[in-house]
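Q: Given only this backbone (158 positions), what sequence would you predict?
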């Protein structure tokens, strides 16, 4: 079975196929990568990223942010865990990045985020996400479900 997808950043064509060899344990991320490409993630993150690096050797902050996101999605619980993804060339190809950032690079990116930059970045991303929602005549609302507590459980006979 062959399937062709386009990487997020480089817009490279990547052919996915089964093989008896162990190539990457992160092949399942191809579905997530395709979803990000389909919704215009790369363009949106580039447009709203509040951090700009001037060094010609710097990894693009949007790629670093995405590497962090993919690391967390892959089960990383610490920045150091992201280092496991640095050795996976197939994943880099899926993402369309030349160099996967180190854990220090990720940490340094987040150190550049002031409270104002966090608010600016996430409010613009929230607005983008809301614009992606299909229109509904009755609109949308966010409800908070009551938390389960002992008092609630005892009053219901549990």
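A: Predicted residues:
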């Amino acid at each position: 079975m062959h399937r062709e997808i386009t990487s997020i950043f480089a817009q490279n064509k990547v052919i996915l196929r089964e093989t008896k060899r162990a190539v990457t344990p992160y092949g399942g991320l191809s579905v997530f990568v395709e979803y990000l490409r389909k919704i215009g993630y790369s363009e949106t993150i580039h447009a709203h990223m509040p951090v700009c690096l001037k060094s010609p050797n710097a990894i693009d902050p949007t790629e670093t942010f995405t590497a962090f996101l993919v690391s967390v999605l892959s089960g990383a619980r610490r920045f150091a865990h992201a280092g496991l993804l640095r050795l996976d060339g197939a994943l880099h190809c899926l993402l369309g990045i030349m160099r996967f950032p180190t854990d220090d690079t990720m940490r340094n990116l987040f150190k550049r985020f002031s409270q104002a930059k966090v608010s600016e970045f996430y409010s613009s991303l929230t607005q983008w996400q809301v614009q992606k929602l299909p229109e509904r005549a009755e609109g949308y609302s966010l409800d908070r479900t009551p938390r389960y507590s002992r008092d609630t459980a005892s009053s219901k006979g549990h």
